[in-house]
Write a structure and sequence with these properties.
Layout lengths: L2 H7 L13 H13 L9 E6 L2 H10 L11 E8 L4 H18 L3 E2 L8 H7 L5 E10 L15 H4 L11
Antiparallel strand pairs: 1-2, 2-4, 3-4
Length: 168
């Protein structure tokens, strides 16, 4: 799938098959995050790959917005340095990982945005880092309507040369 098609069709997946994500796909997902650009090439991220079912259940319990992590066969916890552009850079890496997974038929969703301090203790994340997100991954449990999105029309969000001038 090309990049635009992955962006056009990417949807949040919160229910997963009881089927492992192949090692080659996991490596591609993590590599996509690692290869993402960052301000001044600081790469202020750390990716913790979690496959252990007991740890996945604990992550699901710790993330109030993502109890479904407990049913995923895989999660990647994204921790960041406490630097100026870390959240922005790590967010770019997260999007790269989500799109790479989607292109390989694997669904995911961003869980959390801060408030994940309990995850630090569970995964031995150093105090010098923040936990930004938990990304559960797995093959979607049900049919996913690829590309069925409710988005504002382009005319409401895109402007030409100056705000308020129609783009299209």
């Amino acid at each position: 799938m090309d990049a635009f098609e992955a962006i056009r069709t990417l949807l949040a997946v919160r229910s997963y098959q009881d089927r492992a994500v192949p090692d080659t796909v996991v490596r591609r997902i993590v590599e996509a995050g690692r290869l993402t650009g960052s301000g001044m090439n600081r790469q202020p991220w750390h990716f913790i790959v979690v496959r252990d079912p007991a740890t996945l259940r604990r992550l699901g319990a710790l993330a109030s917005s993502g109890p479904y992590i407990a049913q995923a066969p895989l999660a990647i916890v994204v921790a960041t340095d406490k630097t100026r552009f870390a959240v922005s850079d790590a967010s770019r890496a997260i999007q790269s990982m989500l799109l790479t997974a989607w292109a390989d038929g694997v669904g995911s969703n961003w869980v959390g945005f801060g408030g994940l301090d309990g995850v630090k203790d569970l995964l031995d994340v150093p105090a010098a880092l923040d936990v930004l997100a938990i990304l559960p991954f797995g093959f979607p449990a049900g049919a996913v309507g690829r590309g069925t999105k409710r988005r504002k029309p382009l005319s409401e969000v895109a402007h030409l040369e100056r705000y308020g001038r129609p783009f299209d």
